[in-house]
Amino acid sequence: MAQLPIVFDTVVHMLADAGSRAGAAVAVSCDGETLTYTEFIRCVGGFATELQTADNIGDRVALICGNSIDMAIAMFAVHAAGMQEVPVNPIYTRRELGHILSDAAPVAVVYDDSVSNLIEEICGELGISRLIKIGGEGGRRLTDWREDNGAGLPQPFPDPDSLATLQYTGGTTGLPKGVNITHRQIATNISQREARWRTRPDREFVLCVMPLFHVYASSMCLHLSVYCRGTIIIHRQYHPEAVLAAIEQDRISLLPVGPTIFNGLMAHEKFPGTDFSSLHRSYSGSAPLPEETLKQWEALTGCQILEAYGQSEAGPVLTANPDDRPIVPGSVGVPLPQTEIEIVDVGTGTNVLAVGEEGEIRARGPQIMSGYRNRPEETAQSLRDGWLYTGDIGRLDEDGILYITDRKKDMVIVGGYNVYPREIDEVLFAHPDILEAAAVGVPDSYRGEIIHAFVVLRRSIPDAELALTEYCSAELAKYKVPARFHIVDQLMKTTIGKIDKAAMRQSLATD
């Protein structure tokens, strides 16, 4: 197998190494509060020791918190305690939280004061008695150990092959599934990513505006920062003006965000006056990146966007655009070291397709999940003969570069023709008067399905629907042209900022 940059046994080993090499450097900053690596390790170790009991090694701890220094401490502390973290979106509904907490069966729950009433009620119903509230009246801070010279990471460090994280998938369709990931899978994937996107030790300032409970932020903000002994600057929420100010004032060098944020920043009135000279790299993940966004961002900031592809089940990164060669627009790069990607037929998943043919993407590598919690049938469906079947549609070119066409379930059949909405999205994004767009399939009694497109305009267009129909007709085969355009003020999005096509389809079904 290809040699990787240093691979730590676990992220706890990685944090300990950063503390020994850069103890006085600032590890984390949020709202003006900072912790050096030495202080951060004290807090992580102190809370980890508190969480541990003689018989709870391997048990789960739910973290229902927004972005904060406390959340960063808790994420490392659960790992350091030899337990499995369950990061959960704090703005989930009662139904969503109830399902996850019931399925995960945590022995403890760490939660923000802002959601205390709901969490305490649900936990009471489920018989979860160990509750740790952060902030507010009667709450606490996990920074209390920062001056405690006796606090340190508990020994022994976790077994690399034990479970580290139970990451619930978005649940945009059906009930969320818990993805079991081991320490070794996480640590290996960090080094695989590092092989493609080399960081600069002791020099990086990473802006974290993506939610830490999501695998993209934990991987590309928190873990990335500690790996390179950098500083993570955490924002509690995304505000474009605050992000632009931080890039300039905090001299941000690494910006891992999603396509929606890139578009939002470029549309902001203060964008043209922002100094981007410190920005070394921008990363895009969590959703497909339109080619037009990639081109505009690089032209306006001088900093290219490096896009990766992956999912919670894959540790999470599978492919990446290398930073040492020109980016191929529309692609998500090549497989990470020690990672294999194949395109197989959608029907059986057993026939490997030729170069250029579209089919389901399957992947194999040391970062792939162990399986879904409490879902043996779905685990068997997703993990077959050592391969992870991603449910995504794509193709490989002759250079082994991967292109994502769409989600398998989002494929639309119009009059017997397969249509992939991602292609339509790209055409619409290229229109100079369109800020954001998303195409979805809608049932139709005549054609089986037809395409509807939701569009957010930068500026008003006379006879917009007719103009966009003519525009698409010049770019797409007739059966791919949307039958309807819905001009909206903003696209429906999930709580982590992904364009929510499932909600769009549902809205059309209920009209």
Which key phrases capture this entry?
GMP Synthetase, Chain A, domain 3; 5-stranded mixed beta sheet; Rossmann fold; 511 residues; 5-stranded antiparallel beta sheet; 26 strands; alpha/beta
DSSP strand count: 26
Number of structural domains: 2
What share of residues are in beta strands?
A: 25-35%
The coarse overall form would be globular
Give the CATH H-level superfamily of the largest domain.
ANL, N-terminal domain
Second rung of CATH, namely the architecture of the largest domain: 3-Layer(aba) Sandwich
Instruction: Specify Rg, calculated over alpha carbons.
Output: 23 Å
Low-confidence parts: none
Structural category: alpha/beta
CATH class wording of the largest domain:
Alpha Beta
Q: Kindly report the oligomeric state of this protein.
A: single chain
Number of helices: 14
- The residue-averaged pLDDT reads 93
Q: What fraction, in percent, of the residue positions are helical?
A: 25-40%
| Cross-sheet strand order for the largest sheet | 11-12-13-14-15
Tell me the major beta sheet: 5 strands, mixed
The name of the CATH topology of the largest domain is Rossmann fold
What can you tell me about this protein's structure?
The chain is an alpha/beta fold. Helix content is 30%, strand content 25%. It folds into two domains: 11-393, ANL, N-terminal domain (Rossmann fold), CATH 3.40.50; 411-509, GMP Synthetase, Chain A, domain 3 (2-Layer Sandwich). It is built from 14 helices and 26 strands. The strands form seven sheets. Strands 11-12-13-14-15 form a five-stranded mixed β-sheet. Strands 16, 17, 19, 20 and 21 form a five-stranded antiparallel β-sheet that branches. Helix 2 packs across helix 3 and helix 4 (94-104) packs across helix 5. The mean pLDDT is 93.
